[in-house]
């Protein structure tokens, strides 16, 4: 598990780094592509030209690493949705709080410090 | 000439649309938000414009990262509701207004805003949720034709708040110069404070949000002076969406009247705001 930054910024350099991986996430909007991905995730990653690190992050669902390796949260979320994961689940991962505590913090008015 | 009759600022959180689509608006976690929409919806139902403009950002549905238009305008006759991966929202497709769109493109480009022009665009929750906030039960069609005005907010550098405000002011002039009598509603969408990734995920800043809600009405120039970095620090990396409210505000008169506003935390991971402004008020001499 990699250590997250407080506020990742999806800038041009990050977007270049994550371009192919984000393309893969974008492709998951169709049922046919989701079926192909799930049938052989590694092959699908190779088809999209992911780096080894990106492929590892995707296969192991290391959400923080996907962000670190150039994933945009809006793109990463498409993979999370396919897995039935919510944005609150991801919040729990990024903060290290876990989903239940993250959800409780949101219901209590959100987090202030970060 | 065409005239802006109202401006509506609203969050566009996908779960707000999902709560409506799934009949959950009376659930305890949602009721207060939707109760807070009611006065605005009642007023809007009595003030249907001839055409509306929705200022919004796409979230990897209508456009990809191959090209990232800083500002884009739709000129289509029709915009389909995007399938974001699990089926389209059960809401009507959007009828456009090519005549006004083409006029706006020309006027805005002549004013120095080099827009990207979209003849085809699927509109995602960033666009349809605000329409649902306005019109919860559209039936077969939305109340009027709608034009999408796209803003890049997901890839840094986003346009500055000052540039958004200036675009809004040019948009107001372009609307007024349209050769035909039309009434226009302008929606500025996104925000309020939120952040989805990083160890600061879940960040909410109610003090900033309330300041913003007050200043968007009375002192938009103060908001237009905020830097990109300041906005990200104060509103969160996704809260920078609030710059789109400034485009709406810029299109309106100096003096406006607040019809209704409300604030609710949380809608998913977001502080949700709504603010409705009447543009038909007497102006200072």
Automatic annotation (TrEMBL), chain A:
Residues 21-107 form the Extradiol ring-cleavage dioxygenase LigAB LigA subunit domain. Its EC number is 1.13.11.8. One of its GO terms (molecular function) is protocatechuate 4,5-dioxygenase activity. The keyword DNA damage does not apply. Keywords: Dioxygenase, Oxidoreductase. It holds the Pfam family LigA. Gene3D superfamilies: Dioxygenase LigAB, LigA subunit. This is Protocatechuate 4,5-dioxygenase alpha chain. It comes from Petropleomorpha daqingensis.
TrEMBL record, chain B:
It comes from the Bacteria. It is an enzyme of class 1 (oxidoreductase). Residues 9-269 form the Extradiol ring-cleavage dioxygenase class III enzyme subunit B domain. Coiled coil: none annotated. Its EC number is 1.13.11.8. Keywords: Dioxygenase, Oxidoreductase. Pfam families: LigB. GO terms for molecular function: ferrous iron binding; protocatechuate 4,5-dioxygenase activity. This is Protocatechuate 4,5-dioxygenase beta chain. It comes from Petropleomorpha daqingensis.
């Amino acid at each position: 598990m990699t250590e997250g930054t407080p506020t990742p910024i999806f800038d041009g350099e990050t977007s270049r780094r994550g371009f192919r991986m984000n393309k893969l996430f974008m492709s998951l909007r169709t049922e046919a592509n989701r079926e192909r991905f799930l049938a052989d995730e590694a092959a699908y990653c190779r088809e999209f030209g992911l780096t080894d690190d990106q492929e590892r992050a995707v296969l192991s669902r290391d959400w923080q690493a996907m962000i670190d390796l150039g994933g945009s949260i809006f793109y990463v979320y498409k993979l999370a949705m396919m897995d039935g994961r919510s944005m609150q689940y991801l919040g729990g991962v990024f903060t290290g709080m876990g989903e239940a505590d993250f959800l409780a913090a949101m219901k209590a008015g959100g987090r202030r410090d970060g | 000439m065409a005239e802006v009759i109202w401006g509506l600022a609203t969050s566009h959180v996908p779960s707000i649309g999902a709560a409506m689509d799934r009949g959950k608006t009376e659930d305890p976690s949602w009721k207060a938000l939707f109760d807070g929409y009611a006065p605005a919806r009642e007023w809007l139902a009595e003030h249907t414009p001839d055409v509306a403009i929705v200022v919004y950002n796409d979230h990897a549905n209508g456009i990809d990262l191959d090209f990232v238009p800083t500002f884009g305008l739709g000129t289509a006759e029709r915009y389909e509701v995007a399938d974001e991966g699990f089926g389209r929202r059960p809401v009507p497709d959007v009828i456009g207004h090519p005549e006004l769109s083409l006029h706006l493109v020309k006027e805005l480009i002549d004013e120095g805003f080099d827009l990207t022009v979209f003849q085809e665009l699927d509109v995602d929750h960033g666009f349809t949720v605000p329409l649902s906030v306005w019109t919860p039960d559209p039936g077969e069609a939305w109340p009027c034709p709608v034009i999408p005005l796209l803003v890049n907010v997901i890839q840094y550098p986003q346009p500055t708040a000052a540039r958004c405000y200036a675009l809004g002011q040019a948009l107001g002039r372009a609307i007024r110069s349209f050769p035909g009598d039309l009434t226009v509603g302008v929606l500025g969408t996104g925000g309020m404070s939120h952040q989805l990734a990083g160890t600061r995920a879940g960040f909410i800043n109610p003090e900033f949000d309330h300041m913003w809600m007050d200043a968007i009405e009375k002192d938009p120039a103060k908001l237009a002076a905020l830097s990109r970095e300041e906005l990200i620090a104060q509103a969160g990396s996704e809260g920078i969406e609030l710059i789109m409210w400034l485009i709406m505000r810029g299109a309106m008169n100096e003096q406006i009247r607040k019809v209704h506003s409300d604030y609710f935390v949380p809608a998913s991971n977001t502080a949700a705001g709504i603010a409705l402004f009447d543009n038909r008020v007497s102006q200072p001499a």
